[in-house]
Each structure stands twice: as structure tokens, then as C-alpha cells.
Specification:
The structure is a single chain. This protein is an alpha/beta fold. It folds into two domains: 105 residues, translation initiation factor eif-2b, domain 1 (Four Helix Bundle (Hemerythrin (Met), subunit A)), CATH 1.20.120.420; 188 residues, Rossmann fold (3-Layer(aba) Sandwich). 44% of the residues lie in helices and 14% in strands. The strands form two sheets. The protein has a seven-stranded mixed beta sheet with strand order 3-2-1-4-7-10-11. Helix 1 packs antiparallel against helix 2. The protein is globular. The model has no long low-confidence stretch (mean pLDDT 92).
Length: 304
């Protein structure tokens, strides 16, 4: 599979989480490094910059890809300034990518631990779509509280809520799958809202599946706390703000499958939307539970 084919596969990952897409991006870049035979460090740095740019542009709302680009280009430039031989430079970058994947895998257990502590008193949790980090927290929480109940809102157009409902049901969790429009109905019984994130800004806002902002707005109006479970690799690098990756529009066909809109009807398929920091009670990360204003103080183990 050549480079462009790998990019197309990544672009076609519409039902995978940001974490899964980030890991896939790391694997693609590791393969790319193995294909490079440049002898001039300057040519290699330019090629790396272009390759990581193309990768991030395929999924502009996915922070892990932006972080891969930021850190790899920065790391390679540092090694070039220090006169590291090109062969060693490529190997160091491959080692960093392996470390990235290992860190992400370990992050879920740590997020689950911190999340289960933060939500220990919760009986009914509302969530939207599917998030691997949210699932990890709910799995850990259920082990300590077998009476836990979860309401899952089924995010259109890809209906990822069904994936979450199936996974929770297999654990034995009491789970209800319902339409996004029913979020107000369930606020009277909700203990907390818990979602994942595609990208988190250092200013405290975040980007996630469409429906997240109205869910947290509704929770805020009802006095229900809202938490976001996210790895630190989803915090955008300092070169980017949330506004630069805030809204992503999908194919109209994904929203109207089986129906042909009549002339004069414009179909808008919004996939991701920003949610302001004022609606977030706290972020649950592998480094701990923090308020939006303290995100910048978190340790960033991978340097991203």
C-alpha cells in the first residue's frame, strides 16, 4: 500500500474514535519513515513536514494527528541541529512513535481510574456516541457500582451510540439507547454527563461529535455536571487554537441515506462542533482530573 492509499484509508475512518485514528496515523508515519532514503537532512525535514501536514489535513478535527505533526517535526529539527545522522534520526522517530502508541494504550487505564473516583457517587450517566475513553471510565465505574445506569444518545449520521450501547450491554450495564433530541427528558434523573473529545484547546474549550454542545448546555441549565474524558494527546499543540479545528462538515448523503431531497432543500451534515469551557465541569485525563482553566498545567509525557 503506497502513501496516498494509506491516507485514503485514514480519511475513510468515519466511525473510529480520535484515539483510534491517532494510533492509525502513528502506524502510517512509521511505515512512511521506513520508505524514506533521503541523504540530505534538509530534504528529509521538508518531506516530513509535508507528510505530516497531509496526514493532519485528512482529519482536521482530530487533535492526535496535529500533535503527531507538531512533535515529530519539532523533534526532527532538534536532532538536525545537533548533527544526529539521518539514519539514527529516522530510528529515533520510529522509537518515539512506538512510545506514542504504548502511552495511548496505558492512558485508558489511568483515565478509567481517575474517572471512576470522580464519578463514584453517580447513579445515572448520560453520554453521546462512542468514545474509547468514556467506555473505559464506565467499565471501571461499573465494577465499583453494579447499579450504574447509562443513557446513550445515538449521534447521527453514523449512529455510534449503538456501538457504545452494545459494548456496555456486554458488560452487564443497564443501558438505554435513545435519540439525541431526548436529552432534555433524561436530565431530571441524570447524575452527570460524560463525553469524549476529538480535540481540546489549552484555553479549555473542546471539539466533539455534533450534539455534544446542546447536551452540555442542557445539563448546565439543569445543574448537572459535565465531564470530558480525554488523553493529553488530544490537547492541541500551542500552534493551534480550537477555532482552527472547530467544525467539520460531512457528506450530505450520509445524513439522507434512503431519501432524495427535493429541489430547494439543502442538506447540512455537521459532524463535529465546539463546546465552550464554561459548560465543562472538569477534564478527566491520565494525569488527573482538572478544571478547564488548569489544562495548561498538566504534564505532557509525550512532549506534545
Amino acid at each position: 500500500m503506497d502513501w496516498l492509499e494509506r491516507l485514503r484509508v485514514l480519511e475513510g475512518m468515519t466511525r473510529e474514535t480520535a484515539t483510534e485514528i491517532g494510533v492509525a496515523g502513528a502506524e502510517i508515519l512509521e511505515s512512511w519513515l521506513g520508505d524514506q532514503d533521503h541523504h540530505d537532512p534538509r530534504v528529509f525535514l521538508a518531506a516530513l513536514d509535508e507528510a505530516t501536514r497531509q496526514l493532519a489535513e485528512r482529519k482536521p478535527a482530530t487533535a492526535p494527528l496535529h500533535n503527531l505533526r507538531y512533535r515529530m517535526v519539532q523533534f526532527a529539527a532538534e536532532m538536525a541541529r545537533e548533527g544526529v545522522p539521518l539514519g539514527q534520526m529516522r530510528e529515533e522517530l520510529r522509537d518515539w512513535l512506538r512510545g506514542y502508541r504504548a502511552h495511548v494504550a496505558e492512558s485508558h487505564a489511568r483515565i478509567a481510574h481517575h474517572g471512576a473516583e470522580a464519578l463514584a457517587e453517580c447513579e445515572v450517566i448520560l453520554t453521546l456516541a462512542y468514545s474509547r475513553t468514556v467506555y473505559a471510565v464506565l467499565e471501571e465505574l461499573f465494577q465499583h457500582n453494579p447499579d450504574l445506569s447509562v443513557v446513550v444518545f445515538d449521534a447521527r449520521p453514523y449512529l455510534e451510540g449503538r456501538r457504545m450501547a452494545e459494548a456496555l450491554a456486554q458488560l452487564g450495564v443497564a443501558v438505554t439507547l435513545t435519540a439525541d433530541a431526548a436529552m432534555g427528558y433524561y436530565m431530571d434523573v441524570a447524575s452527570a454527563v460524560l463525553t469524549g473529545a476529538e480535540a481540546v484547546s489549552l484555553q479549555g474549550s473542546f471539539v466533539n461529535r455534533v450534539g455534544t454542545r446542546p447536551l452540555m448546555t442542557c445539563a448546565h441549565a439543569h445543574g448537572v455536571p459535565s465531564y470530558v474524558a480525554a488523553e493529553t494527546v488530544k490537547i492541541l499543540p500551542p500552534t493551534l487554537r480550537a477555532e482552527s479545528v472547530s467544525t467539520v462538515v460531512g457528506s450530505p448523503e450520509d445524513l439522507v441515506t434512503g431519501w432524495t431531497p427535493p429541489e430547494g432543500v439543502e442538506v447540512s451534515c455537521i459532524l463535529y462542533e465546539p463546546t465552550p469551557d464554561r459548560l465543562v465541569t472538569a477534564y478527566i485525563t491520565e494525569e488527573g482530573v482538572v478544571s478547564p482553566v488548569r489544562l495548561a498545567t498538566l504534564s505532557r509525557p509525550l512532549g506534545v
